Amino acid sequence: MRQPLRWPWLDFDVDDVLTPAIAVRVDVTETKAEVPEHWHRKGQLVFALGGGVTCRVPSGLWMVPPHCGVWVPSKMEHSNIATANARIFFVYIEPGAAELPDRCCTLSISPLLRELIIELSDCAPDEPRGDRLAGMLLAELPLMPVQQLHLPISAEPRLRRIAEALADDPADRSTLAEWANRVALSESSLARLVVKETGLSFGHWRQQLHLIVAIRELASGASVQQVSGDLGYGSVTAFITMFKKALGMPPARYLSSVAQNGGSAFVA
């Protein structure tokens, strides 16, 4: 069951606050939580200190594992889904306040930037100390490496239908031919459509979704055995092999490296 994410105070509109950067901490309860699709004038960095968050934007799904952040530019429609017991920080940045990408992307978060975000979230928007912290944050954030762990999707209705169905049930092992039949296309036409819209083959596209779901669930405390089963793998070994081939290391080592290196374990 999903619950809406709650702000730490009522009647709060981030666009009414004119300071260059503000940070808001949100602690999720024992159930999954969701922010419905919306947009705001400020750009937004979604940072997870614990648990995981998945951001959905018009062009794809972006995973926010611990110690990494997803940058959502100003006025881009998006929604966020957090795992149970996640500890999340939303950093809202005035347009033009920092040299940040004009596209959605995953950013590594250094230990220094992590502490700046945490400290800024404890400051009121009009507190002088908050201005100093915001200045340091805005100088540090553009230096963070851009990482690539997302699922490209598009507005094409048939492909979006498949993406949403797989996101809801990632264990679905239907073949390309079976998906083609569901969306009234030939197998070859669907294969060409996936490549055209995402740049990936259907098999690699679905694997990317599995990686996103796997990291999200592992970050929230699920075991490798549980995740491999939830993704429909016949054995834990098969899941670990897929994970290691895609990301260069097995799941436990990967998450440990992310936590120690501020997200720099990510590969394209």
Automatic annotation (TrEMBL):
Q: Which residues form the HTH araC/xylS-type domain?
A: 160-257
What's the protein called, per UniProt?
AraC/XylS family transcriptional regulator
Q: Which PROSITE patterns does this entry report, sorted A to Z?
A: HTH_ARAC_FAMILY_2
Q: Where on the tree of life does the source sit, at the highest rank? A: Bacteria
Taxonomic placement: Bacteria, Pseudomonadati, Pseudomonadota, Alphaproteobacteria, Hyphomicrobiales
- Enumerate the UniProt keywords alphabetically: DNA-binding, Repressor, Transcription, Transcription regulation
Q: Does the record's keyword annotation contain Iron?
A: no
Q: Which Pfam families match?
A: HTH_18
Any one Gene Ontology molecular-function term assigned to this protein's record = sequence-specific DNA binding
The record, for PANTHER family, names: HTH-TYPE TRANSCRIPTIONAL REGULATOR NIMR
Transmembrane stretches in the record are none
